[in-house]
Amino acid sequence: MPSSTVTFESPDALVRARQAVAADANADQIGEKLILNLGPSHPSTHGVLQIILELDGEIITKATPELGYLHRGDEKIAENMQYNQFIPYTDRLDYLAPLSNNVAYALAVEKLLGVKTTPRCEAIRLICCELARLSAHLLGMGVYAMDCGAITVFMYTFTERETIYNLIEALTGARFTTSYTRIGGVARDLPEGWISAARNFVEGFGSKIDEIDNLLTRNRIFIDRTKDIGVITKEDAYSFALTGPNLRGSGIDYDLRKREPYLGYEQYDFDIPLGTVGDCYDRYLVRLEELRQSRRILLQALERVPSGPISIPDGKNVLPPKATVLTKMEELIHQFMIVTEGIDAPVGEVYFAAENPKGALGFYIHSKGGGVPYRLKIRAPSFVNLAVLPKILPGHMMSDIVAVLGSLDFVMGECDR
Amino acid sequence: MAHPAVLSLNEAFPGKIGAPIEFRGETALAVDKTLLPALAAHLRGLGYRFLLDVSSLDHFGEEPRFEMVYEFYNLEANLHLRLKSRVSEDDLQVPTLTGLYRTADWHEREVYDMMGIVFTGHPDLRRILMWEGYPYFPLRKDFPLEGKTSDEGATAFSRPAPLEGGPFVTAPAVLSQEREPRARPPAL
């Protein structure tokens, strides 16, 4: 048998790699890129956010957020219950500031009804909103700093939050799930001595803000981790419809408390802080200054809480005070009708948004009449703000993710609804 | 006082814009869905740089069944404008606005996820809140609050909500007995 020789071409890896790169520079044909899952359970995701990262070494080349791990179907639930029954569900949207969610929802339904609540109720609601903002920003900044390596700040902010929660507990009976508002009013009046207790806290809070300021603002490590990281340009901020401190960090002057004042915000004296660059550090500075401005509003508001009823005296749409329900026939009937049949909402649709700690929390309510919303869409600021992640993360180092996530200050309970 | 954007849209698209609907100081315009990108581009040119919210409605039993709702906002003039557009169940296609407003990306994915409306030209139309492979569109009115069973193996297993005798559902109706909160199991 004649012998034959076959020559095999040697598989030179380097040559093949060069050919592959020459064919398509963008495609990852030689498997250099690493796919990494961040979350859903990761301390810096503040809940259950998953980000699928594509890494080239330590550089992020692509980031794809995956949502829905906390989806509870709040909008579907809302379509199947009366307006007042949905209030406890609003606690669980942005669970770091339940009071301001309660207020935003009540105001949206009142806009649908075409009613305006009493001056005392407005003042109480405004105080609630600003206390909620203090509490939410304190948590947001505390965990932001902690994610960047400064654990001490978290201890300081949590001490202050504890006092705020004591005040909220004295007011509403609950620390987290407050369910404080009702359509047309609030659930109960201010307890005795509450205003002076709140004033004590707010007056002493000024020096606490300075402590946080001293710990972080000129902290070399914190500045290195946040300056020029996660820059959101003005153009992006418009296009992604960001709201809240994330938008104002980019230098766009849009605060609903000034633009479309509700709850009588136009009567109070306060400023809106704006950033210039739109990086993580600017967003921190905006939140820090908002603490000072909220304190300013609270000092004014606590001085001038008007007397009077805490809800609209409208038996058809607003729950009557409990004391009169137990003693008067007509109020008893009104209470019974509102609880069993619900309020009598007109046919129509409204969109109302309030300036919450995370941004503009909007409710779009479509009513076909009766006590049940036909459709209730929740415009969650965290959902809208998070959409900017795939735009700003690529190009950054893997370790910058925690700074960017911390500076965006989102809550997944609200994002996933 | 007439809304300036409505006047401008009427000039640019003569005969295509219906009468504005006014309610509680808000202005809404009912428009044809094929015009949406052109109208949005015109609005953006007028200074409506914020697309604050995109939502959808299911008018179950009416024709056209679905409706898209867009909330535009002009920061300089401090004005809102809402565009509404009906979508028929036979033609569940709406042109996307992602080219004009990046925020429309996730909003449209959510509408697709919840209502099943398809956005033509959308770069990445996947479910966003429910999981991949889930077979229903839960915000449609014919989807019961209890949920529906599905038996598509490991990707889409789901069972009705395990509540004792519930969930108790309030429904709008004329008679008070029909309005009361009570269990309304789905007609399977």
> What is the total domain count of chain A?
1
Mean pLDDT of chain B: 82
User: Count of helical segments of chain A?
Assistant: 18
- Number of DSSP strands of chain A? 8
Shape of chain A: globular
CATH superfamily of chain A: Cytochrome-c3 Hydrogenase, chain B
The fraction of residues assigned to DSSP E strands of chain B is: 15-25%
Q: What is the fold-level CATH name, i.e. the topology of chain A? A: Cytochrome-c3 Hydrogenase, chain B
Identify the notable features of this structure and list them briefly.
heterodimer; A: alpha+beta; Cytochrome-c3 Hydrogenase, chain B; three-stranded antiparallel beta sheet; 18 helices; B: 188 residues; alpha/beta; Beta Polymerase, domain 2
Care to describe what's here?
The complex is a heterodimer of chains A (417) and B (188). By secondary structure, chain A is an alpha+beta fold. Helix content of chain A is 48%, strand content 13%. Chain A has a single domain (74-407), classed as Cytochrome-c3 Hydrogenase, chain B (Orthogonal Bundle). In chain A, helix 4 (98-113) packs antiparallel against helix 5, helix 5 (119-147) runs antiparallel to helix 12 (280-303) and helix 12 packs parallel to helix 17 (400-408). In chain B, the strands form three sheets. A five-stranded mixed sheet of chain B has the order 1-2-5-4-3. Chain B has a two-stranded parallel sheet with strand order 6-7. A two-stranded antiparallel ribbon of chain B has the order 8-9. Helices cover 19% and strands 24% of the residues of chain B. Chain B is globular and about 55 Å long. Chain B has 188 residues and is α/β, with parallel strands linked by helices. In chain B, 32% of the residues are buried. Chain B has helices spanning 4-12, 36-45, 104-115, 176-179; strands spanning 21-23, 26-30, 50-58, 66-74, 79-87, 93-95, 118-120, 168-169, 182-183. Chains A and B meet through helix 2, helix 9, strand 6, strand 7 and strand 8 of A and strand 3 and helix 3 of B.
